[in-house]
Amino acid sequence: MTAEPTSIPTAAAAAGSTTAGHRDHAVRPQDDLFRHVNGGWLASAEIPGDQGSYGSFMQLRDESEAAVRAIIEEAQEHPAGPDGAPDPRRARIGALYASFMDEAAIEARGMDPIRADLAAIYATTSVRDLVALTGRLQRQGVSGFYGVGASSDAGQPDRNLLTFLQSGLGLPDESYYREEKFAELHGEYRLHLGRLLALAEVPDAERAAAAVVDLETALAAHHWDRVKTRDAQARYNLLTGDQLRALHPSIQAWLDGAGIDARYYAEVDVWQPSYLEGLEQVLAEQPLEAWRHWLAVQLVRSYAPYLSGAFVQENFSFYSAKLAGTTELKERWKRGVAFVEGAVGEDIGQLYVERHFPHRHKETMEGLVGNLIEAYRQSISALPWMGPETIDRALEKLSQFRTKIGYPVKWIDYTPVEANPSDLIANAASAQAFAFARELKKIDDGVDRDLWFMYPQTVNAYYHPLLNEIAFPAAILRPPFFDPERDAASNYGAIGAVIGHEIGHGFDDQGSQFDGTGKLRNWWTDEDRARFEELTARLVAQYDVLEPQETPGHTVNGRLTLGENIGDLGGLGIAYKAYRLDVAGRGLEEDEVVDGLTGDQRFFHAWAECWRNVSRPETMITRLATDPHSPAEFRCNQVAKNLDAFHAAYGTREGDGMWLAPEERVSIW
């Protein structure tokens, strides 16, 4: 934590701090900040055929993808290091990519790589046998009844537990089986499954597909919705092995099939216990033949990316074209890059950091994070709605935040991953088996606070409540989010708000239930928690009525997006306070005016630039139902509307599109 703000480059560099050519001067910032800053870009933007949306994030991801492609192709051509010495990382990367790009060999094999597993599915003679087979297949990457992995114990955060989450559905979530607005999609889904099973030479594929849809509909009735699943208290359910088997007796067959030793399930965490009870019921009610068809679908869908073109195209036709509205299958090299990253992502990450992440970026980011932490400290200390006891505990948690910037201090060793340039399916199964084994090893080893949950080449950031840490991979530390040559106002409005957003997750509706050690513990007084919930309820009401232009009649779910909205609101508000600390630290009352914009206006322009985005209607509808993030235009405008600083910067008045009466504005942190 820094008592004196660390300054970052200012002044002359600011001339390029906002993209003037992207603005629409016919739209006033007082009416629509998002379209004022981005309107010129929005008017000419074209969504690439292989994407459902496009904007600042996707542009950065394209840059990262191109950089990774260059790394992979060089590794394929030159598997030794620059000094000529053997480099296992490069050799692995090159061989894995070669196996994916050998399209002729993949086409020649057709469905042969899954034929034996498919035969095993249809040879099962009991539900117990099928459950056991599901366990074996899940270990090699086939989706099943549960999402399974190691996770920190919310009650004892220095240990990892085997954790079970609901799964088993082919549509985006349970609401797609329940809500009338998705009813038409059921027929499309059934037709897709019929075509997929026909490709796998399953007899009477259309009837089999209908059975799978019926089975999944029964399973979906026991799924928690996404809002309930966000409840950290409700989803923390410690069970002994005996309690787990009593709740869901069939799970023993799955554990045996997956080869999981009893020590790993002596105690487990089950996020949705009622789902396991419901699954047991559906296992008893649905005929074995329906379960065989269901598992066949899991197998074919999981391996479709690695099979011949007919399987790839069928998966694309439903999951990309139908659900996301995309018009083109991603080029093979893009899919190959994604495969190699999924298999050995940190091998690539090491090489990416060596090429693309200057150490000075890390130093500058450390200063920015310190300034944001200090701004949060000052803001929390003066909160008018929170009592002194809770303020002290919030400050204690803030002081325990850990920050990761750029890349890990130690890297994953992928030596066990098979990398045969002529056997894609074996490579994919080996990578999945390695990942599964790593999860179990985490239970043996306990919590390792040096591990990362994203790769350096990932354009994103995260907060982990069980570790109380924030992480910023190298790839997001690029324009328009971060530029060490950019002026302070623009950097604070962009990457500063991202930093503030991630810190803010430590104090959102979920993160606020964990203390500074990552333990799920109530550190609030009842009165302060009630006041917090009053404020968040007002935020929910604001977002519940927001309707994206792309999808008339479809609105944001304010409860589903609450955590991200709190993060956005706190992130931008605290980033602004940090920026003002920076200005004061330079002995100024106001930053200079550049390109006709004050420092405060450049701050908000940079924020709006980050959310430059266009989406296909199909993609937007799916995200409104499943994504905890609000659409980009609202992440920009609705957050700004709630900040007094925005209204002061632009002199908004009643009647302006961005006007929100002071008494209606929500300020939490």
TrEMBL record:
Residues 1-25 are annotated as: Disordered. Gene3D superfamilies: Collagenase (Catalytic Domain) (3.40.390.10), Neutral endopeptidase , domain2 (1.10.1380.10). Its cofactor is Zn(2+). PROSITE patterns: NEPRILYSIN. GO terms for molecular function: metal ion binding; metalloendopeptidase activity. Keywords: Hydrolase, Metal-binding, Metalloprotease, Protease, Zinc. Residues 29-408 form the Peptidase M13 N-terminal domain. Residues 1-20 have a biased composition (Low complexity). Residues 460-666 form the Peptidase M13 C-terminal domain. GO terms for biological process: protein processing. PANTHER family: FI17812P1-RELATED (PTHR11733:SF167), ZINC METALLOPROTEASE FAMILY M13 NEPRILYSIN-RELATED (PTHR11733). This is Putative zinc metalloprotease. It comes from Zafaria cholistanensis.
